Amino acid sequence: MYHADGYEPATNTFVGLAAIASRTNRMHIGSAIAVLPRSLPWQVAREAAAIDQLSNGRMILRLGTLDSTTGGPMIHPVWYYFAYDRFFFFTDEDASKLRNVKRESAVYFTIDIDTRPYIGVRGKGTARVVPESEETIELKEKIVRKYLDRSNPRYNMAIEKARSNRSIVLEVVPSYTVWDYSKMSEPKA
């Protein structure tokens, strides 16, 4: 959102995204105009997290693990829930990400905006399987509700999957940083 002259932002990017999030239900949202030199990294991370909440979680976490058979890297886009300074997601008991985490608990992740200026949060963490309990069932249901509206035809199926004992909750205790490629200098000729 720019002034009529097209050069100056008319509002804080995240305020604009919040307005869009409040009036839409299915659109994935992101920013191409965050004015990051005017912001502190922790503010950007907090604002992005707030937009994720206001948009009912239309931002996706990409989880990086090491393949349990080849040792090579694997990227898994996952729905997540952030609480207690941890990321939670659930997966099938026979999924490759679960096998990978059981073999090697170190993981890497990113939650980003895939349009310019390419900002986001990335980090590493330690993943572990959370023992099944009433709390884990609640977490799985929160993840489903974050990404699917009750009117979505897949909602009931996803809730059933969340309640099944075939789905496993993984917890990632992160350490992370905010990154901003718009601050990178141009390559020297």
Please provide a written account of the structure.
The chain is of the alpha+beta class. The protein has a domain at 59-181: Electron Transport, Fmn-binding Protein, Chain A (Pnp Oxidase, Chain A), CATH 2.30.110. The protein has helices at 13-23, 41-54, 96-103, 134-147, 155-163, and strands at 61-66, 73-78, 81-83, 86-92, 106-112, 119-130, 167-180. Strands 2-1-5-6-7-4-3 form a 7-stranded antiparallel beta sheet, sandwiched between helices. α1 packs parallel to α2 (41-54) and α4 (134-147) packs antiparallel against α5. The radius of gyration is 18 Å and the shape is globular. The two termini are 34 Å apart.
Strand content: 25-35%
Number of strands: 7
Integer-rounded radius of gyration:
18 Å
Strand order of the largest sheet: 2-1-5-6-7-4-3
Biggest beta sheet summary: 7 strands, antiparallel
CATH architecture of one domain, by name, is Roll
Task: Quickly list its features.
single chain, 189 residues, alpha+beta, Pnp Oxidase, Chain A, seven-stranded antiparallel beta sheet, 5 helices, 30% helix
Q: Nutshell version of this structure?
A:
The chain is α+β, with helices and mostly antiparallel strands. It has 5 helices and 7 strands, in the order ααββββαββααβ. Helix 4 packs antiparallel against helix 5 (155-163).
